[in-house]
Design a protein that fits this description.
7 helices, 29% helix
Amino acid sequence: MNNNYLYKISNGYICTTNMLYTPILLDDGNTLCMDWNLDSEYHIGENGRSEQLLDYFFNREIKYLPMFQKYSWCPKLLDIDTIQKKVYIEFKHETVNRIINSDIRNLDTELPDWKPQLYNILTDFKNEGYYKTALYPHCFYINNGVLKTFDYYGCVDMNNPYVLIKDLEGMIGKYSEDRFANATENGMLNVAKFFEYTLKHHLCKYWTDDPFPEFYKRIYE
């Protein structure tokens, strides 16, 4: 296992954070490289990845990440290398996933106002007119008391919340198939429907004291 790769903990096991890019933590611990190349030992054994799939989501990442730079919860964009297909962002050693899945650490202790900060993040996205579908704890980190979120490739315009399901198929894990299928209409993923289900029923598996159903009610209904 490469110590510079960023992993998450799921059901007690260390595993990859996503099915698309390779997250490489640089030696300073404060920079994350998102490597969108197909050949990576990080993803050995994962099926469905292709150049077309990675290019599709890489282009989404470099479209939406710069769009939210004005917000304190958005990591500072350090560089985009469109030739090597790498994105460099500020980071801080670990994701919230590590705190939640620790036996000796507590998110309420390390960031007492994480819920209001998370609520404000969702509210800002709503006000900007976008859904952000990547809301797992491993898509967040803490920097000097500020909750920050990354993985912007899943952002979708609320005024046009439909995405071709064929463009997504390679990154749909076996445990997510039903969730995607239930929000698919005539070959298109209805992201509004997908987002609602995710916040009301899905994220509870991953977050401490799940606040998302209440957030959805307050922000979107």
